[in-house]
Each structure stands twice: as structure tokens, then as C-alpha cells.
């Protein structure tokens, strides 16, 4: 399972960040995808126009699950079990895509969320499995761009359309509309300490700051991670530049990052946060942070890459934990 959020710092820089939580070892790493590529997708061939960088893996073809393109459009795919509904075949005039190919198609063909609102009407997501897992991945998607426009795509019927995301947060099932309604349950929470009242003549002693967030859910379910991320995003102190914002996003994702062993599936395997991805939209840069090394590892789109490179490039991650020795 996964959690994602958008963020705008006080300078106006925009970001999309996510955790990638899964039990099966995905083996993702940063990949640069040049302009004008032809993908032999699992539901059929599709082409792209724009260059992008993101996290993925080369199987029978490149599969990308999150990233940012040359126009600063960011995208991320998250698990959406029991709610995603796919078509068996594409209608005439529409491009059929496997669920795991949607992110690459979006990053390679859309300049903005506004443009994507029209483009998604030209595709259908088909019930086609990914060979790595041997199943069709139930996914939904979050998109954001340097204007701050943020929307979600949920294939719950054959009619695909983007859904505005006013809080810029997404987790897993149920649908975004359910998560937004569920926020009203926690609408009285605040960052400030709540005053205590005497009970039956007994003066109560404070438990210290933090009482404003009493009731904030702390478990790893999708609804709890969604609420926790909205709360922490809302009350976090604004940052002024890209490095400090990336640092803040690391702290925000800390609250939903899943260590190995604490969230077991029915088969005894552990869902855990395999990596965290940070898309710096105005910078056109992708930062990746694997589970075993919390140092950010960056790939930025340059004009040379976009204008002169025509072959995808994979960037192996450094998985060695880094320690600074001060003496």
C-alpha cells in the first residue's frame, strides 16, 4: 500500500511525494525516458512525446510507477484493491492501456493536469496482468503540476475522468470521495493544546502539548494514513527553498512509512515502504530514497538529456546506509 501528498513551499515551488509500500520486492530504480519512445505495452503498443524521469523497472518493457516530466507534470500510481474496475477491450477509437502502463503514458503525453483532463477521455484501462506479479494490478493515480492543480484518476467504471483533489493527499482504498468525507470525523483536531476542565471538583493536570491531536489515528490502514497525512501537511511550518522542503517531506512521510515486519498480510509476508519518491515539479527533478539508505538520490532532467539522448538510462541506487563520522 502507499501514501502520497503534494506540497507548495513559501517560494511557490511544487512537489509530489509518495511512499511505495509493497510486500513483493519490486526492484525499482530511477529511469530517464527520452522523448518520442514506443512502448510495447502489455495491452498493446503506445507512443510518447515528452521526456520524463521516475521510478520503474525494465521487464518486457519499461514500467514506470511515478515520476515527473519535462513540463513539471508529476504522477504516481497507488494500489486500489477491490475498487478498480477495468474493461476487457477498448472501444473503437480509444487506446487500451494496461493499468501498470498508465503512468508512463501520462508522463509521456500530457503537459499539465488541465490537458490530462481531456486526454484521459481517449483511453481505456484494460484488465491485463503484469508479468512480474502474475495479476492485474488494481491501481488509481494522482497527478499534480507546477500550477498546484492536483487530481486523481480512479477507474471505477468505463467512463474515465479526473477527480479534483482539494487536499492534495491520496492513499489506497476506498475512493477519494470516501476519504474526503471521512475527514469530517477528525475536523475538530488542532495543533494547539486543548484546555482541561475540572471534573467533579477534581482539578486535572495537563498532559502537555499535543492534546489538540487526541484521536488522530496512528495505525497503517489507508484511512488512517490519509487522515494523518492531511493533518500533518496542514499544520507543518512552511519552508522557503527546495532542500528544506524535501527535508520536510521526508518528515511528513515518516509518519506513514512502514518498517518491515509491523504490517503483515494474510500469507505472513510484510508490507513495508520499499522506497520514497519525491518529484520536484518546478525543478523537473526526481529524488528517490530506498528503505536501507535514507539519503536522497537525485536525477534532474537537463536540456542535454531531453534534446540529445534517445536511449533510456537506468540509475542504480546506492543501498548502503550512510553515516557521517564527526570525529
From TrEMBL:
UniProt domain Choloylglycine hydrolase/NAAA C-terminal: residue ranges: 2-308
InterPro entries noted in UniProt: CBAH/NAAA_C, Ntn_hydrolases_N, Peptidase_C59
TM region positions: none
CDD domains reported in the protein's UniProt record: Ntn_PVA
Molecular function terms from GO: hydrolase activity
Keywords of the record: Hydrolase
Keyword Hydrolase: yes
Pfam families in alphabetical order: CBAH (PF02275)
Domain of life where this protein originates: Bacteria
Family indicated by similarity: Belongs to the peptidase C59 family.
Protein name: Choloylglycine hydrolase family protein
Amino acid at each position: 500500500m502507499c501514501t502520497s501528498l503534494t506540497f507548495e513551499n513559501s517560494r511557490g515551488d511544487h512537489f509530489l511525494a509518495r511512499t511505495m509500500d509493497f510486500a513483493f520486492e519490486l526492484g525499482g530504480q530511477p529511469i530517464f525516458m527520452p522523448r518520442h519512445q514506443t512502448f510495447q505495452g502489455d495491452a498493446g503498443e503506445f507512443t510518447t512525446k515528452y521526456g520524463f524521469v521516475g521510478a520503474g523497472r525494465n521487464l518486457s518493457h519499461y514500467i514506470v510507477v511515478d515520476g515527473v516530466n519535462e513540463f513539471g507534470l508529476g504522477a504516481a500510481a497507488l494500489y486500489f484493491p477491490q475498487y478498480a474496475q477495468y474493461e476487457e477491450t477498448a472501444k473503437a477509437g480509444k487506446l487500451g492501456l494496461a493499468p501498470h502502463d498508465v503512468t508512463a503514458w501520462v508522463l509521456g503525453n500530457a503537459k499539465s493536469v488541465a490537458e490530462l483532463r481531456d486526454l484521459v477521455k481517449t483511453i481505456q484501462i484494460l484488465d491485463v496482468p503484469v508479468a512480474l506479479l502474475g495479476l492485474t494490478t488494481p491501481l488509481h493515480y494522482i497527478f499534480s503540476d507546477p500550477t498546484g492543480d492536483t487530481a486523481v484518476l480512479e477507474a471505477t467504471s468505463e467512463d474515465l475522468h479526473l477527480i479534483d483533489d482539494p487536499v492534495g493527499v491520496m492513499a489506497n482504498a476506498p475512493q477519494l470521495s470516501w476519504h474526503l468525507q471521512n475527514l469530517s470525523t477528525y475536523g475538530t483536531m488542532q495543533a494547539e493544546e486543548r484546555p482541561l476542565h475540572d471534573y467533579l471538583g477534581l482539578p486535572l493536570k495537563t498532559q502537555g502539548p499535543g492534546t489538540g491531536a487526541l484521536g488522530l489515528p496512528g495505525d497503517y490502514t489507508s484511512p488512517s494514513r490519509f487522515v494523518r497525512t492531511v493533518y500533518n501537511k496542514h499544520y507543518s511550518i512552511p519552508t522557503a527553498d527546495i532542500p528544506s522542503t524535501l527535508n520536510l517531506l521526508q518528515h511528513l512521510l515518516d509518519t506513514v512509512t512502514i518498517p518491515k515486519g509491523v504490517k503483515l498480510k494474510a500469507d505472513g509476508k510484510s508490507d513495508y515502504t520499499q522506497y520514497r519518491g519525491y518529484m520536484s515539479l518546478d525543478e523537473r527533478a526526481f529524488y528517490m530514497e530506498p528503505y536501507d539508505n535514507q539519503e536522497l538520490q537525485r536525477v534532474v532532467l537537463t536540456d542535454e538529456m531531453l534534446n540529445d539522448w534517445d536511449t533510456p538510462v537506468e540509475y542504480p541506487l546506492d543501498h548502503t546506509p550512510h553515516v557521517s563520522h564527526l570525529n
